[in-house]
Design goal:
Helix 5 runs antiparallel to helix 6. This protein has six helices and seven strands. The longest helix has 39 residues. It is extended, with a radius of gyration of 23 Å. It folds into two domains: 122 residues, Pleckstrin-homology domain (PH domain)/Phosphotyrosine-binding domain (PTB) (PH-domain like), CATH 2.30.29; 45 residues. A hairpin with an 8-residue loop joins strand 1 and strand 2. With 197 residues, it is α+β, with helices and mostly antiparallel strands. The chain has a seven-stranded antiparallel sheet with strand order 4-3-2-1-7-6-5. It comes from Candidatus Galacturonatibacter soehngenii.
C-alpha cells in the first residue's frame, strides 16, 4: 500500500511541477497578440481538437485550452506562420493530412471550405519540420505577430553573432601583437572572420 501511495504522490508532484513550469513559462516574455482559436492538429502532445487561446509572446507561441492541454513553441524553433484559406489548406498535402487525422468535417465540401480561415505554424524541432493548424478568425493578425517575433529574434541573434566576431577580431589582434600569429596567419583569420559578418 505504501508503494502505491508513494507512486501516486510522485505522479501528483510531477503534475504540480509541470503546472508551475507552464504557468511560469506563460508569464515570461511580453504578450504581442492573443486570439481564440480551435486547435486542429500537428502538435504531438495534443491529440484531438481543442478550443482555447493562441498567445504570441516575445519568447514563442502558446496554446492553452480551458483544461490542462498546453502547447509551447519557442521562437527559435518557428520557421514561419501563415494565414490560410480553406482552399489553400486543402491544396497543401501536410495541412490537409492534419485535417484528415483530426476528423475535421470539411473534407471536400467547397462551400464550407471557402468560409474558414486557418493559421498554420511551421516549426523545426530536432531537425524535423512540422506544422500546427488552427481554425482562427484572427489568423492574419496572429501570423503577422509571429512573423514579427521571429524577425526580432533573428536580429538579436545576428547582433550576438556580430559581437562574438568582433571579440574574435580583438583576440587575433592581440595574438598578432604578441607574435603568436604571423602577419599572413593574422590576415587569413581576419578575412575568415570578416566573411562571416
Amino acid at each position: 500500500m505504501d508503494s502505491n501511495s508513494s507512486l501516486f504522490d510522485k505522479i501528483r508532484e510531477k503534475k504540480e511541477n509541470e503546472l508551475v513550469y507552464k504557468d511560469n513559462l506563460q508569464n515570461s516574455g511580453v504578450t504581442i497578440a492573443i486570439s481564440k482559436a480551435k486547435y486542429l492538429g500537428g502538435y504531438p502532445d495534443i491529440l484531438d481538437e481543442k478550443t482555447g487561446d493562441v498567445v504570441v509572446k516575445t519568447i514563442g507561441v502558446f496554446f492553452r485550452d480551458n483544461k490542462y492541454n498546453f502547447m509551447f513553441v519557442p521562437v527559435e524553433q518557428i520557421v514561419k506562420a501563415e494565414f490560410r484559406t480553406g482552399e489553400q489548406v486543402s491544396k497543401n498535402e501536410r495541412l490537409s493530412r492534419i485535417l484528415a487525422f483530426s476528423g475535421f468535417d470539411f473534407a471536400f465540401n467547397k462551400k464550407k471550405r471557402e468560409g474558414i480561415i486557418f493559421l498554420s505554424i511551421t516549426y523545426r524541432e530536432n531537425l524535423v519540420e512540422s506544422s500546427i493548424l488552427f481554425e482562427c478568425k484572427n489568423a492574419n493578425k496572429i501570423a503577422s505577430a509571429i512573423t514579427k517575433i521571429v524577425q526580432e529574434h533573428a536580429k538579436e541573434k545576428k547582433v550576438e553573432t556580430d559581437t562574438t566576431l568582433i571579440e574574435l577580431m580583438k583576440e587575433i589582434s592581440v595574438l598578432r601583437a604578441m607574435n603568436v600569429l604571423t602577419e599572413e596567419e593574422f590576415h587569413q583569420k581576419k578575412m575568415d572572420i570578416l566573411s562571416r559578418m
